[in-house]
Amino acid sequence: MRRFALCAGYMGALYAFILLPVGVLVLFSFQDGRLPIPPFRGPTLRWHEAVLTDRRLMAALWNSAVVAAGSSAVATLLGFLAARGLATGRLAGAAAIRAALLAPLSVSYLVIGLGLLASLNLAGLGLSLWTVAIGHSVINLPLCFAICAAAMGPAVVQAERAARDLGAGEGRVMALVTAPMILPALAAAFLLSMTFSWDEFIIAFLLSRFEVTLPVEIWSLLRGGLNPKTNAVGSLVFLASALVVLAAELALLRRKG
Amino acid sequence: MIAARALTRRFGAQVALDAVSLTVAAGEYCVLLGPSGCGKTTLLNILGGFLDPTSGVLEIAGKPMTGVPAARRPTTTVFQDYALFPHMTVAANVAFGLRMRGWPRARRTARAAEMLALVGLEGAGGKRPADLSGGQKQRVALARALAVDPQVCLLDEPLGALDLGLRRAMQAELRAIQRRVGATFVHVTHDQDEAMAIADRLVVMNRGRIEDEGPPERVYRRPATRFAAAFLGETNAIPARVAGGRLATPLGDFGPAGGAEGARLVALIRPEHLRPDPDGPIRGRLREAVFQGQTRRVTVEAGGIALVARLPVAAPLAETVTLAFDPADIHCLPEEP
């Protein structure tokens, strides 16, 4: 009994540690006052209303959604192709290619962002949402590659051989056999990329100019001082992320069950 | 149907296939038999187009196969682990090759049902591969490979994952199905009983080379090498010498012999060809007797050689055993270094 209490207490403390900041953030988005600090004064929805009627914030939210969906689709596609190439073909230097694909995981986003900024300048490309999407594809590709590579087991490789043996060209092997067989992994890779892109600040900040994503817009909002409105928009961002992660888990669990 | 000339395949320094030449006639059931690592699967993969030979020429149905990918060969493969598509129904699995060949849906469905009936799985088309037993998956894999009416069907240890009873039943069925569809079958196995039961042409392989090939009975009774003899079943190898036109062995005179005078040979005799006979020429001491149901396997020491014989269970056993044989059952090979 004492052991149970100890475990329960430990678990409670752990979750409190993780969730308390989010809880406080959400709570003070309902603050009826000018500052999101204690004491809590009665609930109000006016800050949420202010967020939803702020055209700049709503534009940034839409930009974030488009960048997240687009960059995740590209990262998932490239990760899938890379994983397939390494699993099926007896490629020379496969280990080196694998290492190069995973390398961005070990580099900080700041360095990747600065590197991309320098490269884009060299290439003469102006900053826009497109460049943000390129940056997010770069940081999410290693994750998508790793998830797809883990799903490309011997059963998939053997089924691909069978499809080829029965006359399927590479395009149809991928579309009719490989992709359906690792669909849960593709869905998980896509949805996780979405959440990373959705939350990402530093690369979006460095690679955007006039049109910005939501985290960058929130940043400029914060520079105007603390305000329950920032809490309200933060809660909305958190809600969206949580929904996408839930979708990813459901996609994986349904296949397993 | 298949003509392979001097096929060689190296993996780094290792030679998996060493200048193998093989011809298989149309409609023949050819079995490649050998221990693991003998090159039989490498040869099958080269036939199927999954592996390129390092050197050598391969023709299938009269056309050179160099650079022709698996998808465009007149061959299909039944894989060892079946390699069914888990996300498709059984019928969609069987019809996959037809879909790739652009058959309309109605014709595909009809053909898939026909192929499932051929392998004894009528009405199973709506199931998923995960709902089938190992033997049923095996049948689906066969139906899928045969649905496109290939000229050559390649089978990679197709019965390897089945238990013994099912295996023996499937052997007979495979044979019957091959007769009905008339395609050339090339079947890889390491089970010599399976190989002898199915094959029109038996190819015994070892260390990347063909040791012997021919009708199973010929290969069993008159093997070309010691390896082929031993791999097909237990055998007694007795050192012998040609003396005065007769075969001299430590066990006595084994009858007339061909070959050069003084040549060193090995006389092979299968255990089931030794029979108990009080007047027999071989006299030895009983070392071991093991009851095996239909026969009794006895080890007899004679002339410093341990002989194995399969005797009728009813034959009386004594300290001293005398055995006889029919000289026609003796097969001589040159002594190997």
Provide the descriptors you would attach to this structure in a database record:
heterodimer; A: mainly alpha; MetI-like fold; B: alpha+beta; 6-stranded mixed sheet; 8 helices; 20 strands; elongated
Condensed summary:
The complex is a heterodimer of chains A (257) and B (337). By secondary structure, chain A is mainly alpha-helical. Chain A has helices at residues 2-28, 46-53, 55-88, 94-102, 109-123, 129-151, 154-165, 170-181, 183-199, 202-207, 214-223, 228-256.
What does this molecule look like?
The complex is a heterodimer of chains A (257) and B (337). Chain A is mainly alpha-helical. Chain A has helices at residues 2-28, 46-53, 55-88, 94-102, 109-123, 129-151, 154-165, 170-181, 183-199, 202-207, 214-223, 228-256. Chain A has a domain at 67-212: Orthogonal Bundle (MetI-like fold). In chain A, helix 1 packs across helix 12, helix 9 packs antiparallel against helix 12 and helix 11 runs antiparallel to helix 12. Chain A starts with a helix and ends with a helix. The mean pLDDT of chain A is 87. Chain B has 337 residues and is an alpha+beta fold. Chain B has helices spanning 40-48, 90-100, 105-118, 134-147, 164-181, 192-198, 216-221, 226-232; strands spanning 2-11, 14-24, 29-33, 55-60, 63-64, 75-78, 152-156, 184-189, 201-206, 209-214, 236-243, 246-249, 252-256, 264-269, 275-276, 282-291, 295-302, 305-312, 320-324, 331-334. In chain B, strand 1 (2-11) and strand 2 (14-24) form a beta hairpin. The longest helix of chain B has 18 residues, at 164-181. Chain B is elongated, with a radius of gyration of 24 Å. The A-B interface holds A 155, 158-159, 161-169, 172, 176-177, 180-181, 183 and B 48-50, 69-72, 75-77, 79, 81, 83-87, 96-97, 100-101, 144-145, 148.
